Amino acid sequence: MDNHPHHPDISSDMWQQIDRVIAAHRDAPGALIAVLRECQNVVGYLPIELMDYISEGLNIPRSDVFGVASFYALFSMTPRGRHMVKICMGTACYVKRIKEVLNRIRNNYDLEEGGTTEDRRFSLEAVRCLGACGLAPVMVVDADTHGDVSSDKVIDILERYE
Amino acid sequence: MAKIAAADLERIRDAKAQEASFQDRIYCMICGGTGCHATGSIGVKEALEKEIVEKQLSEKVKIVETGCNGFCAMGPILVVQPEGIFYQKLSVEDIPELVESHLIGRKPVERLLYKDPVSKKRIEKQDDIPFFAHQKPIALRNKGLIDPEQIDDYIAKDGYFGAAKALFELTPQQIVEEVKTSGMRGRGGAGFPTGLKWQFCQASPGEIKYVLCNADEGDPGAFMDRSILEADPHAVMEGMIIAARAIDAHQGYIYARTEYPLAIRRLGIAIEQAKEYGLLGTDILGSGFDFDIEIYQGAGAFVCGEETALMRSIEGKRGMPRPRPPFPAHKGLWEKPSVLNNVETLANIGQIIRKGGKWYAGMGTETSKGTKVFALSGDVNNIGLVEVPMGTSLRKLIFDIGGGIPKKKKFKAVQLGGPSGGCVPEEHLDTPVDYEAIAKVGAIMGSGGVIIMDEDTCMVDMARFFMDFIQDESCGKCTPCREGTRRLLQILEKISEGRGEPGDIETMEALSEVIKESALCGLGQTGPNPVLSTLRYFRDEYEAHIYEKRCPAKRCVALLEFRIDPDICTSCGACFRACPAEAIAWKKKEPARIDKEKCIKCLTCFEKCKFGAIF
């Protein structure tokens, strides 16, 4: 019998992967961040039901799990779009006018930082320095790094992602 | 691979000697750093491999994917050894010509060489390019010269000989003395003497101790740690082994930023290879000393670069700092004595032990010894990583090595030390890079980010940008930082939106002093620096914003009119073509006009106008 909580975004296959993650870290001290990371990789984000499940699995208070998940920028508690658009807000990119690039994206897709388009096509995030300052201004879409993006080029680049 | 003994290091090095000095064939060293990967170096490498097989050159030519070369803006980069011919911005289409002309015909392809932005001449050899010629690589000595995924390549460059010396020839006390003699100070930002840090931890009683490596490179505009980890991961690990021997620790952690996947992957490979050789694990090189390293991935919190916060994070908790004392040398990770060093610091240690502290102390200034890696970025021609002796002037760094400011713009300021650093204007450009000298002009050495800003940068906007960063990254534990930085940000936003009032500057100054005095950790204590240093040198810009409701650099949207001056407009049409909102009306020979109804205030036209006709 499947005794996992019900959640529309978590399939039974995902639950099994989550169980493996928890089992692998159960007795290791300080494993909470690693567990949250791996579970987020499975599901795409951290729904509250999943955090509760992790709390029980690791025998850590729910408040601690939520405290850690809300502290670190890596963790998201809301669903994300098909394509993750990360805009580098490092100083080098800022000096090279990333703000204008960000404004173009906002205007064009009616999208706020941290938000997702209604059709779940894009999620937009303004992130900390990606360490690719040589390519500033930088935008990362999924796993692709785009360097030297300007406000007049950025929409063309994004339109390639369906 | 089997476990090796100390004598085997020499055997491996000697067997690789010819290869390491590129004597036995032609070597194509293709840059595989994050920057070059993004500009397509993997495709270039594959094309090169294919072409070499097709032209039956496999015996004569070897392709090596190296770590970051440092000259990131020029990627993809290929250096052909042994001559050291430097090719830049390569594409897959360039490869057949390059192979035919250079690798077969021995004639470098002129059009793919570096072009000096000043003399407009092509330069063949990497060492002759000013960007490289003024450098003195120590922490970065192996960049572009080895395959970071091959431990033998590192050993061939005298790698792990420092660790062997520390294990067999020196006592822990002697190791500490050697590091103290070198004058090495922490390269992560604070500049605390490394030898002293080790001494405190050595003296601290305890069965279990830890060596930690801080690879949570958070300062925007700093990417030297990423580069070192990608290009030479073993150098960092060797430094950790030596530190472990000095304080008698048997477990180490590398706390790495999750935003650096390539660095983490290469570190993982390096750790595996070191384990197979017995350079990590039990009985290292037959010395009887045990030490192991684990990678711990951060989860995106700037404050975790602070030592006590980093340790809390490894423990799986919210990464919040705690008051010191007790210092980590007494109570660190899991309450055990711990030493935490930055990536760049550790990358120097192997050589300091091998060549002696005196050798290292022979470079630099009175109080700042050795070399420092800087990441040049922003409005500068040669963007990338450079390593120079301490004492080099900022002017040399920006104009000789960095090649000056692009597009004939004027230099305005250089921002040093990350978000909690400061801006240095033109008049102080002859300041040498030295911990004390930089502090005197109101900035900090920090981790080595050097962001150059041209005349189009608004300093109020920059201060607002940094304060936005700091208040967002403030962990919220202590009130001065949590509330104080937020209040500073509110005032800065007010000023840049044209609602500044008399008294704002004075309020910010008073508030900044309070935050500096009372915040718990380094983040808060240095948090107001961006405000204070811009006020120190660019007070007139603040005043223009507050009293005249004017942004001299034309960057603060709320203070702009979005109006084209018909007397200055040359009717070139550049703004018209660039406008994404079709808000600009323009005909040949007539000045352009902006339709304010349609304008989305994106500033694209300001960027495109070469004549400054838009207000």
Summarize the largest interface: chains and residue counts.
A-B, 47 and 62 residues
Give the CATH architecture of the largest domain in chain B. Answer: 3-Layer(aba) Sandwich
Shape of chain B: globular
CATH topology of the largest domain in chain B: Rossmann fold
What is the CATH homology-level superfamily of the largest domain in chain A?
Glutaredoxin
CATH class of the largest domain in chain B: Alpha Beta
Topology, number of strands of chain B: 17
CATH architecture of the largest domain in chain A: 3-Layer(aba) Sandwich
> Spatial order of the strands in the main sheet of chain B?
12-11-15-13-14
State the oligomer: heterodimer
Cα distance spanning the termini of chain B: 68 Å
Can you identify the CATH superfamily of the largest domain in chain B? Answer: NADH-ubiquinone oxidoreductase 51kDa subunit
Just give the CATH class of the largest domain in chain A.
Answer: Alpha Beta
Helix content of chain A: 40-55%
- Provide the helix percentage of chain B: 25-40%
Quickly count the helices of chain B: 25
The name of the CATH topology of the largest domain in chain A is Glutaredoxin
Which regions of chain B contain 5 or more consecutive residues with pLDDT less than 50? none
Q: Tell how many strands the DSSP assignment of chain A holds.
A: 4
Number of domains of chain B: 5
Mean pLDDT of chain B: 94
